[in-house]
User: Fold these one by one.
Assistant:
Number 1:
Amino acid sequence: MKALLVPLVTVPLTLSAIGPPAHADTGWVWPLDPRPAVVEAFDPPVDDYGAGHRGVDLAGATGDDVRAVAPGTVTFVGSIAGVGVITIDHGDTDSTYQPVDATVSRGDAVDAGEQIGTLLDVGSHCAPDACLHLGRVLADEYADPLELLPSSSAVRLVTPFGPPPEAPATPIGPIDGDGRLAMPVEGPVTSPYGMRLHPILGIWKLHDGTDFGVGCGTPVRSAEDGTVTQTYADSAYGNRVIVDHGDIAGSAVTTSYNHLTSWAVSAGEAVRRGDVVGYVGSTGYSTACHLHFMVEVNGSTVDPETWL
């Protein structure tokens, strides 16, 4: 038995009747032509059922031809949760495509660049726009498809918000919030909340917190009284601490402290405003020592500076 992995669903299939593909994994071609922009990059989950992005989203248009990334054998064609999905076995790895209206059937042998279907908008990760979610499964684990796709002159930025702004040459000015939360560290803001070009992924996406430029090892303090709900290592946020502050001014508020070198508290522990919860680091998707501080209000991220 071999597990077919597609986003949020695992479907067991028997492949012996089809036979193994004749080609092993030696590099991929782009599944859309012309070469698409990457709307959202690979961001693997911490565990099998955790949040994450188990592939890459490639910009396209409804009706675009979708092509096999490499020679192989089609092992799955069908609808999962109302979304058209195709899986191809390339020997060392599988590729998955969604949402697609298939023009192939299970058991078909395909060549690299051969059309396997057309792009749909129903089930698009980029709704209301169409995009192809391309997945890669290696030894029953999700892997980054971009590792096998041609990288020379590849476009990896889609921005409906206009060109990205220049990075500030100096730290951003003082915070002018309402003081409902205390500063977690004393240091300059080096990257504010808002849309930006991600320094690691190279894509235009929301920066969901405020970055403070302080040295590794600096104590990080709870912004308000609360209860620690989680302490764990995340592939993107690095070592992080999440604190539930309950009701503040009629809203449910949580804060998180990210890219820590280590945490100083445990899940379930009560903390007071100003208690040390961890120490600044550069873990996860980070280019230097800093604190990435996040505030969620009623389940949605907000600009932390408006609360500090």
Number 2:
Amino acid sequence: MADNEDKEVVALEQNVGKVTIEDRGSNKPEKEEEGGVMGFIKDVGEAIGGIFSWGKPDADISGFNIPVLNTKRAEIIIDVLITNPNPIPIPLVDMIYDISSDGRKLCAGTIPDAGTIHAHGKETVKIPLTLIYKDIVDTFDDIEPGQVLPYLATVTLLIDVPVIGRITIPLEKKGEIPIPHKPDVDLDKIDWDHLSLEETSATLHLTLKNMNKFDIGINSFQYDLQIADVSIGQASLKESTEVKGEGVGSLQVPITFRPKDFGGALWDIMRGRGTGYTMVGAIEVDTPFGPMHLPFSKTSETTLKGKDEDE
């Protein structure tokens, strides 16, 4: 009878099998008792693991977008698509990112507690970052405005998965990113279309040099022209012109103004005498990397004669 009191059997039945724990009484060594408890926990974990199908998440860099691109900075968004095959949500512990070019680190950082991936779901996690071109050019002597840099973007995901534990998923993507340069704009000549004191119309003949190694497609041209420190016109022109990388293009820009509102300097210009000019503006262009805003500023001196007059 005493033997029956010293022995007790407890059975735990699960869908995937049976786990049995035997308590052999207080006369057994303490280590065996601990082993029994640990064994119970292990067996229950295995039983639960058998009920559900656990798997490692899958991930991929699905996008590398540059929504803002100008001569000062590039704002980049890296899209990371993560798939969770498990029946419960899993936490995304950290996202570690790095962008380099031929071994030169351009940008790096860590996003902690980046969110949770839903059960049996897909989530796109966005990594926003900014490249400041001045910092890059000041740091690396061999990088200059106008270049196109090869880049390697790496993203490392740290994810906690039940039963499996913490896993690391390394990702990478290669591509190119530009370091934009301002265009060089020259005023070649002015064709006077209509001359009068009340209103004068003319056509500016401009030469635009693309200082970048990539092609640009000009969509619009905005300018403010000052001659002899006098502003003679501002306008915005819709212009569709393509200029190859490091190539030269031509623009014809109409302008209208009232000569009687200006001093004698303007009359000297119209007579073909030499004078200085300043043109400030910006062009909106399409590039292989997306739309871009390129400002320009040019100060020079010209006679503003037509080519036929010069010859």
Number 3:
Amino acid sequence: MTFPIRIVPRYRLLLRYDIHPDAMDTYYEFIMNEFIPALQSMGLYMAGVWHTAYGAYPNRQVEFIGDSREIFREVLQSERWEILETKLQTYTLHYERKLVRYRQDRFQF
């Protein structure tokens, strides 16, 4: 029997960007089949995806949580992350990345 993975989130990785209009289908295929599974296998778990329909903000914010700063350090310094992030950037515009302390009670930018 497999139980859900339980972690106590300490940090949140925020990825903000606009999806390149010509890359929608390949973006979704990459995110669902490669990016998310790879991060989960490295110990980071998707906590949310936000879409901005109006305003001067990137139209997508994707959030991953982890239970230690060390996990984020290992992931963000790995060659695998570098390859994944570079590939993600080919499908996006105005890409930004930010690591913040996890706060459960509020939306984080």
Number 4:
Amino acid sequence: MTDKLYKLVSKESETPVSIAIKEAAQSVEKVLKALSPSSEERWNEPPLILAAQMGLHDFVGKILRVCPQSATYLDTKGRNVLQVAVMYRCEEIVKIIMDMRTILPFWLFSKIDPKTGNTILHLASRGSPDVAKKDQDEPDAMQLHYDLVWFEMVQSSIPKELVHSRNKKGKTAQELFTSNHKQMRKSCKKQLVGIAKTCTSAVAAVVFAMSSSFSHTDDPKTGDSRMFKALSYTYVIGLSFAATSLFLLLSLVNSSYKEQKFRRAIPTKFFLARLTYNMALGTLLLAFTFNTFLQIYGVEGAKEKQEITFMLEIIVCPVLTCLLLFFPDAIFGTFRRFI
């Protein structure tokens, strides 16, 4: 193709058209050189298999509903659509196939690879393809939990007699899962312990610093009674959340971190610790606001407009920072629409 393009422009003088054709020919040549044999073979696969590899769950679902028999199509390596979806961890596609199991061939869920002896549960034990990449950084602290949930979902789809099936290497899917996730378990443990220690120190420091600077007397001559009550309530609530968060974080530090603990025990502790930690920070921030108000206005108090302005001055910066940290895509996407 590139030879024909070069012959076409060699007979013509240098014109904008000939220059454009030369550039196009060079681009095509670079693309053809970049194509590896595996990428060329990819386009010989059935469309259903390609869609499963790319995670196009809507496309796969429509094809299977119109033609359930297409689930029996195999790729060049002898894999069906369910095996490919499990290998590439396309959860939506696996759920679609599980919902359609009454109209799909039964052997789809019980097929064993003749070369390796692997069931689809063995394929699910490999974990997330993104985490398996060599250039991937440390996995998320809860990645092992996500992999356990994924493994159990695939396990519920296969016949019970295949749950403990051994492959050609003599390993069950559970043994393979444990072997493949040893390093991930250590990494998740390291991250969770580090997070727990950091948050514990931060909560203890904040509570100690704020308790030493608060007004502790409800005297009308020294402060606004209404603000003092708000200060007292928010500080007590914040202290309660902080103490609960400290206990949960310390329990995370002292946990055993066995593999099955990542299924429910550790994620529950981590979720509750984060929740109480954020609630403690929020209520203590309000308490700090009320305390600063008392120290500034004292006996005279302040008008309603001044109170609102003061609250905004104290709270707006932390709130905006939290929004930018936790919802960056939504915020920047909204601003781009108006630019």
